[in-house]
Amino acid sequence: MKTIGLLGGMSWESTELYYRKINEATKHALGGLHSAPIVMVSVDFQEIEELQHHDDWVTCANILCEKAQKIEKAGADFLVICTNTMHLVAPQIEASIGIPLLHIADATAERILNSGVTKIGLLGTRFTMEQAFYRERLEKKGLEVIVPGENDRNILHRVIYDELCQGTLNDHSRLEFIRIIDALHIQGAEGVIEGCTEISMLVKPEHVGVPLFDTTAIHAEKAVLEALA
Length: 229
Prior knowledge:
Elements: E1 4-8, H1 12-30, E2 38-42, H2 45-53, H3 57-73, E3 78-81, H4 90-96, H5 104-114, E4 119-123, H6 126-130, H7 132-140, E5 144-146, H8 150-162, H9 171-186, E6 191-194, E7 212-214, H10 215-228
Parallel strand pairs: 1-2, 1-3, 4-5, 4-6, 6-7
């Protein structure tokens, strides 16, 4: 089995989910006491979050490139960035290392298309919903992507940073997420991407009437398939 490189800590709550899901999938595939060989570097999210909100993506990229290089030197065969938003600097990270990068949007698009869905709603941070790096990658795969309106984007962004990234699950916020998902469905979305790795902690498939695509689970499962290939 190949060694999986995890670039985590953004937030540590979602990185914990990656670790658990990767090992659960490995055990399911191999049985017994098998677990996944993993190299992980986890960053201080406070530093990254401040840079994000000052639009200092150059410094973000520099920090994450350095961490990715450490992961490669420690023996990882490929890299998984355990967050949707920081795929904004995935091209810089990919260029800085000699091992493959398993892109979260590619894995997600593959799962969506295999399900037969072509028009998809996208939830996430404002960066993920509003900037082109994620949406356009999905569109190049053949998906039609719709995002919530500005007010709802602000609600999603606030809940992600002020609550979910701090491990807080709020019933009122869950209802707001469900309302936003219902609105996307009314606009024609056949499913919805939980395009922030923490959202799946709050909103489960049983809460809504449309398929949810949990990027954390999808990315983790794809990593195990790659490691077993």
